[in-house]
Amino acid sequence: MNKRLYLLYILTAALLLSGCMGYHLGGSRPEGIHSVTMGPIINNSGEPAIELQVTAAMRQQIQFDGRMKLVNEPKDADAIIDITLINYALTPIAYATDQQTTPDTYRLRVTAEAELRKLSTGKVISTSTTYGEATFPFQSDLTTSKREAFPTAAIELAEYMLDDLIDQWN
């Protein structure tokens, strides 16, 4: 009886473990791409100076993700990420009362296009068109409110963009 029970345990363990074959922790990356650099972000959105925060958010996301090493010089990289900011929209989404004409809450959305390109061949590996957004209450003035909310939208944009460019390879 003990031998049969022991054999059953071994068979069960083998079946369970075989289901995990090929699985590894973390994601994969495009073949032959171990390091990446970022090209200058082109801002065609009409909103001045937002490319600085998008650059910082994207660099932080690449480093946090850890699948590719972020390098500063194209000569040290296998691939480059080029980003173009294409739209910046501010939309009122809530009012305190029906008679109020000044919005209480806004949605800020920034949209961008990106491509991951292999530097040795110039071949585009993947592309992304995505957005990041943040909602925020109107505070003392709209400029301050937008300035405080934009980092949240930039971080979301960076997360979605990197997922689009890299995760399709899983």
Describe the protein's architecture and organization.
The radius of gyration is 23 Å and the shape is flat. The mean pLDDT is 87. It has 3 helices and 6 strands; from the N terminus they run H-E-E-H-E-E-E-E-H. It has helices at 2-18, 51-65, 142-166; strands at 35-38, 42-43, 69-70, 79-94, 105-118, 124-137. By secondary structure, it is an alpha/beta fold. Strands 1, 2, 3, 4, 5 and 6 form a 6-stranded mixed sheet that branches. The chain has a single domain (2-169), classed as 2-Layer Sandwich (Double Stranded RNA Binding Domain), CATH 3.30.160.150.
How do the helices and strands line up, and which of them pair or pack?
Elements: H1 2-18, E1 35-38, E2 42-43, H2 51-65, E3 69-70, E4 79-94, E5 105-118, E6 124-137, H3 142-166
Parallel strand pairs: 1-3, 1-4, 2-4
Antiparallel strand pairs: 4-5, 5-6
Helix pairs in contact: 2-3
Task: Looking at this protein, list some descriptive labels.
6 strands, alpha/beta, 3 helices, flat, Double Stranded RNA Binding Domain, six-stranded mixed β-sheet, 170 residues
